[in-house]
Amino acid sequence: MSQKTFFIRADSCTGCGMCQLACSLVKVKEAGTGRSRIFIERLVMDGLMVPHICLNCKSPACIKACRRKAIVKDQATGWVSIDRERCNNCTLCVAACPFGAVIVAPDNEVLMCDVCGGNPKCAEMCPTGALRFAERDRGVAGPAEKAAENIFKG
Amino acid sequence: MSNSGGHWSAELKFAGFQHLVIKGKADRPTYLWIHDGEIEFRDALFLWGKDTYECEELIKDDLGDQHIQIVKIGQAGENLVRFANIIHGLKRAAGRTGMGCIMGSKMLKAIAVRGRGSLKPHDPGKMLETYSNHFRQITSTKIYPVISRYGTLTIFGIQNQSGMISVKNNQFNYFAEAEGKLDDEIFEEQYKTKTLACFACPLRCSHRYRIDSGPYAGTWGEGPEYYMMAGFGPAVGNPDWDLVLAANTLINRYGLDVGSTSSYISWLMELWQRGIINDKDTGGLNLDWGNKESVLALIHQMARNEGLGGMIGQQASRSADVIGRGSGKYLYTQRGMIHESPENTRASRATSLAASTASRGSDHLKGRCALEFFAMPPEVLQKIYGRPVASDFRSWEGKAWMAVWTQHFTTMADSLGYCKFATIYPGSTHNLGYAQFCETLKAVKGWDVTPDELMEIGERVWNLQRMFIRRETGVMRAGDIPPSIYFQPQPLEPLQGEKLDRAEYDKALDEYYEIRGWTKEGAPRPETLVRLKLDAEPSHLI
Fold this sequence. Notes:
The complex is a heterodimer of chains A (154) and B (542). Chain A has five helices and nine strands. Chain A is of the alpha+beta class. Chain A has one domain: 2-Layer Sandwich (Alpha-Beta Plaits), CATH 3.30.70.20. In chain A, strand 7 and strand 8 form a beta hairpin. Chain A is globular, with a radius of gyration of 15 Å. The relative contact order of chain A is 0.27. Chain B is an alpha+beta fold. Chain B has three domains: 107 residues, Aldehyde ferredoxin oxidoreductase, N-terminal domain (Aldehyde Ferredoxin Oxidoreductase,  A, domain 1, 4-Layer Sandwich); 189 residues, Aldehyde Ferredoxin Oxidoreductase Protein, subunit A, domain 2 (Orthogonal Bundle), CATH 1.10.569; 164 residues, Aldehyde Ferredoxin Oxidoreductase Protein, subunit A, domain 3, CATH 1.10.599.10. In chain B, a hairpin with a 2-residue loop joins strand 11 and strand 12. In chain B, helix 10 packs parallel to helix 13 and helix 16 packs across helix 19. The interface between A and B is large, with 32 and 42 residues.
């Protein structure tokens, strides 16, 4: 079965935050950015906008870092998610994630994207294609292991 | 009275505040730090004298957070330049009316905001659905591919080629030298480095740019808009992008207003052309049309309060009295504020009327009746405006109503926090309108409002502003007249010979007042205030 994940093109990101609002409305029924599972690093002086979202790595560093086995990867879909029953918000995964994609909410709860069952509203609401949800191997940006390099490709 | 796009207002809402009222003044440079429900006054001595770009970095370092949104003033505001702006980010500006000067007088250098809270909508599911629908609607209009690529720069070519631009302080109406040089596509190819957006907006009309070669190599910044392009292009007799961009960076760093700064510079250049001022007045600056170094020098002077530019910055429209020698004849003002330099819409009647009767005077944001320019069929116009409006922009038929309608519509868009470029304001009939405003209000607040009710709210705002103007300035009808140059014929094709006829204008103004329920002097009649439930408005509000 082919697996889908996110692809990021920072070059195309305008920093509008529509993905954050969409996420927040879907996940917590609020319009805001604090509890959104996608985070946009807005480096204003550099003119660089970098979306951070879980890329569902093949071999996730967050899983290795977690001492409570609270992060799981679904072998069929490839999606990584947090088991809220087991997580104690220690933030070891936040430190481990190479993409800065694990988010700490204002109340210190650790948040991670769960791809909304394969139908993420954030990617649908992205006006520029900076954030896409596509098949991992035949996808728009190649394999996810290359994601970090690809983020800054044109 | 001014507004601005960007991220700051959303951040303020997320920080738990809807409005800020700044009373009194500080005795030393201060900035405000607002975060998650708290407001802190902080020392801004280390920021005083810094430009807006430096300020952006210094505040973020001071507070140790890169995700703060900041509005601030540059040296222009500190030095009380009468047309200093409040700048947000690197380009977004609350312009025209000197709000930066007010902040400077309060010694308030900046307001930094960080909010991690959120808005609790009445119906989150409905809000998301409405938001998605409006997103699709905005991005499927014909104007979207253009505006998301070039922003307002695309207006320049249209205005110039229609003979509706101000060249050399409104002496001419078409600038041939700009053809093939000052052009949105050239900006895109040669200077643009990045596209950016305001919060939650798919239109992304902001651009980063960098100049790679020539005398201004290395200059970078964000912007520019049509007003910058026209104001530091034809208005000062310059056909080159490099000056437009160099001036844009300087103006945003200093926190000056584009329209006013370029208008005063083009006025000075006309005085120089006519021999009214000479190099003794300018301190040695040569003000020939298109002299780039002099244009930039005047900007430096205005912001730093030095020399001739400094005098202009401090005196604004009173500069004509300081210079004397008949210079006032070439200074085009309205309600004491200089006419926006790129704006030359005397050929289009509704826009002239609506911009001139706008509360702050000479205001394209409330006054631009863009649908007038496209010669739309009368049926389409009837459908939008609900009354007959002539297709020809040179006809007065129905234009008083078009002006009133546009003023209410733009006021509502501002009040609701919409960007006007996502609405039908810039000329796309398929963009958002009252119906979509109502859908959003229903989802976010749960209010059942109708388009007519929203229009009436716009009218109430408009009347309240008029009462404020009457109380504070007493200038009514006399302030509703366009600059004198609008009554002179345009010298060049296209639209050669077009002008406003004073008798026709007065007749249209009478009709406009009649529609509004105002007296011939331009004051709301008592029965109008009763109809709008403004008759009992507490005097401290009006």
